[in-house]
Amino acid sequence: MIDKKLLLEISALKLEGKIEKLDDDQMNQYEQLLVSFIESFPEREKKIKAVLEAKDKEALAAQLEETSVILEKMQAVDLALKCREFVNALKTCGYENEKIEAFVTVFLGTATMLSIDIQMAKYLEKKTETISGKKKENATAGNPGEKTVLAVDDAVISLTMLKKSLQGEPFKLICVNSGESALRFLEKNDPDLFILDIEMPGMNGYELAEKIRENGHEAPVIFLTGNSTKDYLIKAIQAGASDFIVKPIYKENLTEKINKHLYSQNA
Hints:
5-stranded parallel sheet; 2 domains; single chain; 267 residues; 5 strands; alpha/beta; 10 helices
């Protein structure tokens, strides 16, 4: 059974004051609802994207309405409400295709992040192996007291979005475009947090995360991904993932995830 405390940490689920009152049978039913959502979401996402591409507004409204019902039952009430409001507007006054695409892109990204958060709560404790080691004694993370985040992605646009979204944040962001460059940086530095793209040529994110742990760096690893399937996420967890950020990158989700891990280490 998923730990209630882990579910309470998922900001998209409004469970405070509710989940604590559930007995074991009710909690089991709620967990089955969550599992059904995460297992069916990849296929649901495909259907929504298909009707969006076909510009079939009626079918899109039906798919989104069905999804909003599920989200409401899960207590993802804010996301369900936004979805319902969009569907109602789509039915009554319609939207231009660009506005429809923009909403659906953000909605699917948020729903994907919710699916991943639920899976992290369910499967993270089942990680089969944690590779750890002694931190490099000569490694530094910049000025004393300054937090450092190392981001690794072969896509320039992703690194640009990271820099833009994190401008003005109270930590130092270092960006490199390959696993090899990251390992060279880590020879003399020990960041407080890693953000790694998974799909990279040469050394992928899984392989880089394993080398990071083998080399004694123990900071949390956040993977950049657009894939919410169970096997994909479990593989990332086994490679050392602490969390995920969904592409395309949105500032709100990004800063929430970074702050959660960057500043909880000293708690």
